[in-house]
Amino acid sequence: MLGNRWLPVACTCAALVLLALAAAHGYAWQMIWLPAAVAGAAWAVTPVAAQTAGQFKAIKALAFDAYGTLFDVFSVTALCEQLYPGKGNQLAQIWRAKQLQYSLMRSLMGRHRDFWGLTEDGLVWATKNLQLDLTADRKKQLMDAYLSLAAFPDVKPGLEALKKQGVKLAILSNGEPKMLEAAAKSAGIRDVLDDIISVEEVKIFKVSPRVYNLAPERMKVTNPELGFISANSWDINGAASAGLNTFWIQRSAAEVPEELGFQASAVVKAIVDLAPLLRG
């Protein structure tokens, strides 16, 4: 029998989209919960040490998801709270949910709009839903925050360690090119990246295989020579479905993998764990 303990699920794509849909039906802010017993039992991470030694020695290049993996999308929360006291956390969460929801919906509709535009649309919807006054000045402040998102602490040292091993590094993201360039420069990681690859080259968002196929093509490697890294399980499933080696950054032990039929090639807790894993 399940206990009475409850645990907030990490903000996966599915949870965020559900939150947005709840908001659309009049629930401005509801956390999504699962029983702790279920969250704890559903997924046991294979320790890095237990994975096959030398399994990934053929990998010459790594492509990283950007938002939620390299850059913390919820670093905008402080500004949201400053502009809208008492509503900052709700605004940040719903904004991100709508951003993802719109990327999925536009891909299905065949009506592409770049990620900067989706980010603006999501912000407008979120403020309307919360009945907040989005002035032109506030909109600019919040949009500009996406150009200087905070990087997670493991990002820079992790990328630098991989670079020292001679691994090619790139971003593969839904983001619009100028957004990604600005965020990478702001985070101090642009110099360690060999390339920034945007879905704007194919005009469709993840999880389309056309997006993931861009990485080996642009980085001039074969699929077995490429690894894709994301902290988003839905993204890992998309890349694995497209035939790539995948590395899931499971920053929260409470986060469970999506039930989409594909497992990560390896699971680690931080980007700094990748360099020793590739060395074997």
Would you identify the CATH architecture of the largest domain?
3-Layer(aba) Sandwich
DSSP strand (E) fraction? 5-15%
CATH class descriptor name of the largest domain: Alpha Beta
> Helix and strand succession?
EHEHEHHHHHEHEHHEHEEH
Describe the structure.
With 280 residues, this protein is an alpha/beta fold. It has two domains: 1-42 and 74-148, DNA polymerase, domain 1; 52-72 and 150-279, Rossmann fold, CATH 3.40.50.1000. 42% of the residues lie in helices and 12% in strands. The protein is built from twelve helices and eight strands. It has helices at 13-24, 36-41, 77-83, 88-109, 115-129, 136-145, 155-164, 177-186, 209-212, 214-219, 233-241, 274-279, and strands at 6-8, 33-35, 61-64, 168-173, 195-198, 226-230, 245-249, 266-268. Strands 5-4-3-6-7-8 form a six-stranded parallel beta sheet, with helices on both faces. Helix 11 (233-241) links the parallel strand 6 (226-230) and strand 7 (245-249). The radius of gyration is 19 Å and the shape is globular. Mean pLDDT is 85; it is low at 1-50.
